[in-house]
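An instance noted here:
***
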Amino acid sequence: MRENLAMNEAQPRRQEPDLAGRYGALVVAALIDEVTLAPKPGLVDIRSQGAHHDLDWKLMCTSALALQPTFAELARAGLETRPLFALRERIGAIGRDGEARMLDATHGVNTHRGAIWALGLLVTAAARGPDDLAPAAVAARAGSIARIADRRAPTRTGHKGEQACLDYNVGGARGQAQAGFPHVVQVALPELARSRGRGDSETAARLNALMAVMASLDDTCVLARGGRGALAEMRRGAQSVLADGGAASLAGRRQLKALDRRLVELHVSPGGAADLLAATLFLDRLQANAPHRSKPLTTRA
């Protein structure tokens, strides 16, 4: 019996040939949905550069499209590589190649480093178990992969988010992934569903999901630029948006615009929250596009 289990673990799963490509395209669609959503406090969107001087909507879209082959390769790895240790090292190499591809497309600007990590894990996990695309199940599989050490990864990257984790003793993107993306599964997706359920527009529902993440996330992008003071202001501002009815209400929109102005003044941008919103939109879209669903969904992909 153990021999049979080992053989099953070693055998690649046969799937339709375009599955990896379709999953990669869903990731890119989620990234473009995220960057297009407006108004997002401190973040690049279709109408503003937010707190950034080197990023804009066009560059972010260029980067997302350039990364489509990377996300398809990651999905293919999930389909083909069953042993978890081998899979972790394979996707680590693909992710590093994807980062180089991103920097080439953006002439050296970091647009999606965090998204390559978060959505890369999720698209790998989705492809690894395409018969169960429930968000919690995909996120749990991604967490199992993230908890495995990649022997070929650099010990230190020198990235600002990594330094913020050390300086402020927070988990950052790695901690989120290893825990199975709790801010996606337990915070953003439920808020998205609540907002849709009460009849909010899709734009308002997505903004509310972002606010729910920002209201409690230890966002290392904010910590790296503005420290704990800026993080506290971001959280209070996001909580105020939701307390005043969210992005669908007049009072909530006023709070949203006030938060945007303040984060721009502080020159901080909640990039960690943006990556988790993109992850939320990917899992939402993934489930909506699943070929077989036992329960009706309230998604609008």
